[in-house]
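Q: For a teaching handout, I want to show students what a protein-ligand complex looks like in token form. Below are the inputs, and the small molecule is alpha-D-galactopyranose. Please produce the holo structure.
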Amino acid sequence: MIDEVFQRIFGSLPEVMVRAPGRVNLIGEHTDYNDGFVLPAAIDRAITYAGRRRADRLVRIYSDDFKASVDIDLDDIQKDSKNTWSNFLRGVSKFLEADGHRLTGADIAFGGDVPREAGLSSSAAVEVGATAFWNKLLGLGLDPVYAVKLARRAENEFVGVPCGIMDQFISALGHRDHALFLDCRDLTYRHVPLRAGVKIVVCNSGVKRALAQSEYEVRLKQCREAVAKIAATGRAVKSLRDVQLSDLQAARGTLDNLLWRRAHHVVSENQRVLEAVNVLENGELERFGELMNASHASLRDDYEVSCKELDTLVELARQQPGVLGARMTGAGFGGCTVNLVRAEAAKSFAQAVARGYENALGLKAEIYVCQASDGALISA
Ligand code: GLA
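A: Here is the structure, written as tokens, with alpha-D-galactopyranose included.
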């Protein structure tokens, strides 16, 4: 427990603790940076911060996962190329101060059980956790959506990863036993109850997302290029969110096959999310599963962000009894799949998929049966 770690390192109990979960995305992949729709859930794996105030402007932070500490001078916050794990807190602290929130020094220990580089948003959990930590320690009273944007800004502008807003949003504002339907354009959202009787089962391929960042940037550019080309035909579109399937058909001549497929994924995925929310609210779980399956096919064939290991996990999943839907989740190129499985079948599902994966590829998959949980700023 992180409070015990804190006590061991800093010699007293912490003043405050906060917990920021990782996430799994049920549907709506590569739509957030296109102003589209997403439906993630926060999971019961989290990063926890424990800390107390200091009287000076020094932040001493201990990472329990890396078993290392660093000191940060709040008056001179620089990127750390060696202890890169500390950059999330550095970025968050820098931007809070830049926005006029005066921080004090602090002793901090943090760590958790969100697997790194597995597509379950451990980075977002670390950033949102850092924001929630300062909020609680200093009673900043941050507006939750402001806090989400700040955490994302730390990732985009300080750490240097051009992600969308989904991961920070769900880590901050997820609800226990609910998914979160988010409109990434205006940031309106609502919590959608998950049905009793089904489990979210996450299969970790164990493949680190090696290509993820460079290919992510390529996809982002391709989406912008597709928008510019469609707009040049006289349609009033600012992002792929504004494009309908019929517009896409009409613009077929102006987009080459590659750009057409990229745009087709995003446009069709947005439609799938809207339908998925609807059917989930109506308890039509079979249809929800079909939409997950269609999402995977689109990510694999049109968007080309899957890989052999993810496809294998998805195919194995679909052979198991009690499975409603299976797809890759997160940016792709490794990481995890998400599966909707009838509760009574979840255990045998996990065993069969792990066995099948080892037989097929000689690799070990970790399987997590997840409980949707509260975000960091829900009880703050
Ligand atoms: C990563 C990014 C998110 C989102 C997903 C793909 O997780 O951090 O913003 O773009 O990929 O849906």
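A: Two things your students might notice: The mean pLDDT is 96. The CA atoms of residues 49 and 251 lie 50 Å apart.
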